[in-house]
Amino acid sequence: PAPFRRPGFFTYMTPPPPSPPEPAATRPATPADPRWVPGLPFTARLRPTGEFAFDAPPADTLTLLELTPEDLGRRFAARDLPFADPAEGPAFWASLAESAAALTPWRREVRVVGAESGREIWARIHAVPRADPGGGVVWAGLLVDVTDLKVAEQERRAADQQLATHFDNTPLAVIEWDAEFRVRRWSGRAEQVFGWAAAEVVGRSALDFALIHPDDAAAVSELMRDILTRRQPRSRRVNRNMTKAGRTLVCEWYNSVLTDDAGALASILSLTLDVTERHEAAEALARSEERLRTALHATRMVVWERDLMTGRIEASDDLAAFFGLPPDSDPTSDATARAAVHPDDLPRVRDEHVRLIATGEDVQHEYRGGVPAEDGGVRWYSTRAILVRDGGGAPLRVIAVSADITARKRAEREKETFDRQLREAQKLESLGVLAGGLAHDFNNLLTVILGNAGLTRRLVPDGSAAHGYLDHVDAACHRAANLCRQMLAYAGRGQVVIDRVDLNRVVRDSSALFGVSAASRVRVDFLPAERLPAVAADLTQVRQVVVNLVLNATEAIGDRDGVVYVRTGVATLTGREGGPPEADHCPPPPPGRYVYLDVADTGPGMPADVRARIFEPFFTTKFAGRGLGLPAVLGIVRAHGGTVRVDTAVGRGTRVRVLWPAAEAKESTKSPPTVSALPPRQPSPSPGGRVTGTALVVDDEMYVREVAASVLEEIGFEPLVADGGEAALAMFAAHRDALRVAVIDVLMPDMGGGEVLARIRAIDPAFPVILVSGYPDRGLAGLTPDGGRTLFLQKPFHPEELANAVQAVLGAP
C-alpha cells in the first residue's frame, strides 16, 4: 500500500541486520529479568468478521503487558483492554478504527493495568496497516514499554510544580529565557511585580514589551549581547524597569547562563528583586548627607563625626579621598581606619583615641598617613578631637577636625635634609681632599718603589733568592695601589670612562667575585628587572660597587644562615621623595629616570650610630685593615651623579639602594684622551732593536724623575729631567730637534702637565707625550683624543708599563 512506501518509513520499521555474537567479556549487561525486551514486534489482524488476532512472542507479551497474545486478541475483539483510566478507551478504539479505515499508520500511547502485578504500564504503539487480500486489515508494528519514561516525566512535572510554588512564595521574580532571549518561564512573583501574566509574555523577547525603562535600554541591550555571547556567564545589574501599568521600578537582576553538553547556550535564568523602596530610602539619605557636607565645607578642613554606638561616620568631605584610600573604602570599618594611618604611628593614634574616650580630655596629635601621596612621598595629618557625652555622662560620639599638613612637614624635612647634607658635604669634601692628597703622594712613593724594584730585578741573576723578595715588594705595591684607587674613588677623583652599561649583565658577570663558596651558609639571590635601561657609568667602577656591596652584605650575615638579595629596577625621581633624612648619603640627584641596584641582606642590621659612620674611610666593625669598601662605593656613585640610600634597623637586616642615571637611548660613549695607537712618527731603532734619541722627563718628585729617567735610559734614550713646567718648556725649546718623547707629570706646583702639553702642542702638534699622575682627574680637563699622540699612565707604574707606553706612543715594535 502507498503509506507503506513512504520514503524513510520502511527503513525505520525494518530491524537492522543481525550482528555476530559478542564475546562474553564484552557483551553489554542485561537486566536481571531475562525476559526483558526494549520493544515487542507484533502482527495484528482484523478479519471482516470483526475477529481480532494478535501475533507476538508469548514470553514477550507476558513480560510487557502481562497478557498472552491470545488474551490480547480476545480483549481487542471484545473492546475490553484493562485501561488504567477507562475514559481513555473510546479514544483508543476510535484511533484503531481510523487506521483500519484509512490504512494510515497507527501511533498511540496506552496506559493499562498489569493483570498480575496491578501496576500501571505505559506502552507506545507504532504500526503500519495494509489491506488483507482476503478482507480485513493487517498491522505490522512495534510495541515499546515506556513506563519508566512516563514515570520520570510525571516526577519531573511534580518537581517543576513544587519549584514553581516555591518561586511564587519568594520575593524574587524568576524568569527563564531561551537562547534568543525570549521568555520561557515567567513565575507568579514576576506576574505580581511587573503586572504581565505569563501567557502575555512567554515566547516574547524582553525588548518586545515595555519591561525595560527607555533610559536603561541601551545598557541592558549591551548586557544581553554579552550574556548571549557568553562573555558574562554570571552577572548582576541594577536598572530601572517598567510595570504593565507604567510604574517605574528599580530592580536588582542576577543572571546566569546554562549551556548544554556541546557547550551551546541552552537558557538564561534571571532572579529579580524589587529594590525600589530601598533605593528611594538611599537617595533620601544621600540628599541629607549632601546637605551636611555643604554646611561643614565652610571650615575648609575635613570635619567628621563618629557615633560610638553604631560606628557610623559623617564627614564634610570624602574621607577615602582625603586619606588617599580606595574610593570604595568603608570609613566605618576598622580595616579602613588602620589603612589610613602609617603602621608605625598606629599604636600612638589608638592610644590617643582610647584616652579621649576614657578621660574626655581633648586630644591633638600629628601622624603619618598609611597611603603615599601621589608623588610617592609621605602624607602627614593633624587631628584635633573632642568627646560628646549623653545626658547620663556616657560617651556618645567623637567630633574631630583633620588637616593635611604634608606641605608643612615636607618643608621642615627639606630644611633638615639640606642642613644635614650640607654638614655631610663639608665633612666628605674635607675627607675627600685628604684622601686624594694622600693617594697622590702615596702613588708617587709607590712609583719609586715599583720602579726601583723593577730596575733592581734586571741586575739580579736568574735563580737568585732576591727575585722572591722582589715579588713580595711588587705584590705589596699593587695592594697599596689598589688601596689608593679606593681612596681616589671615595674622593670622587678616580679615572672614569663613561659608557652604556647593562647593570643586569654586570651583576651576572660579577657573581664569581662575590666570594660565596659552596660550603657557605649564605645564599645570593639575583632578581633582575626585565627590559632594564642602560646606565651611563664606568663599567669597571660599577662592577666594583656591585662586588663591594655584595661582599659587605655577606660579611654582615657572618657564619649564620642567610640570604643576600640583589635586585635591579627602574625608579623615577621627582625631587619630593619621602623617607627618613638619614637615608640619603649623597646630595639629592636631579629629577629624572634612574636605574637602581638593591643589595639587601638578612643580617642583624645596624644601629643608628653605626649607620651614620659606614661611609667614613677606614671605619669598620670588622677586623683592622678594612673600611674602604663602602666609602669607595659612595665616591663612585657621587662621581656618577647618582645617590646611595640605606635602610636598616637592628633585627631586620640592611638594604642599600644605589641609583644610577639612566642612559639616553642614543647617548654616545665618551672616552678620556688616554688611549690611541696611531704613532705620528717612527723613530730609528738602534742596533739590537733599541730606540734612540732624547726623552724629556718632567716631575716635581725627584725620585719619580730618577725612576722614569732610568727606565728610559734602559730602553735606549738619553733622558733630560725637569722639576717643573717652566724648566720643561725651556728644555723642549733648546733640544727640540733631538727630543723624541716626553713623560710629563699632571700635577706640578708651578704649571700643570695639561698646560705644559698644550704649550708643546702649540709648537709641535704631533709630538708624542705620556702623561702620568696618581690623581687622574686633575689636569686632564679639556683634553680630547688626538690619534695616539698622547697616552695616560696611572701611578704607580712598573718599569715595563712605562716602556710599553713609550713604545706604543712611538709606534715602535
Can you walk through the features of this model?
The chain has 813 residues and is α+β, with helices and mostly antiparallel strands. It is 36% helix and 24% strand. The protein is elongated.
Number of helices: 22
Shape, please?
elongated
Main sheet overview: 5 strands, antiparallel
Distance between the termini: 119 Å
**Count of strand segments:** 27
Assign a percent range to the helix content. 25-40%
Uncertain runs: 1-32, 667-689
What is the overall pLDDT average? Answer: 80
Share in β-strands: 15-25%
Alpha carbon gyration radius: 50 Å
Strand order of the largest sheet: 2-1-5-4-3
SS class:
alpha+beta
Question: Which secondary structure elements does this structure contain, and how are they paired or packed?
Answer:
Layout (H helix, E strand, L loop, with lengths): L8 H5 L25 E8 L5 E4 L2 H8 L3 H9 L11 H14 L3 E8 L6 E12 L5 E9 L1 H22 L3 E6 L5 E4 L1 H7 L3 H4 L15 H12 L5 E9 L5 E12 L5 E10 L1 H21 L5 E6 L5 E3 L3 H4 L11 H7 L5 H14 L3 E6 L11 E10 L5 E10 L1 H54 L6 H25 L8 E3 L1 H7 L12 E6 L7 E3 L1 H19 L4 E12 L18 E10 L6 H4 L17 H11 L3 E6 L5 E8 L32 E5 L3 H13 L3 E5 L2 H10 L4 E7 L7 H11 L5 E5 L16 E5 L4 H12 L3
Parallel strand pairs: 17-19, 23-24, 23-25, 25-26, 26-27
Antiparallel strand pairs: 1-2, 1-5, 3-4, 4-5, 6-7, 6-10, 8-9, 9-10, 11-12, 11-15, 13-14, 14-15, 16-18, 19-20, 20-22, 21-22
Helix pairs in contact: 13-14, 13-19, 14-18, 16-18, 19-22, 20-21
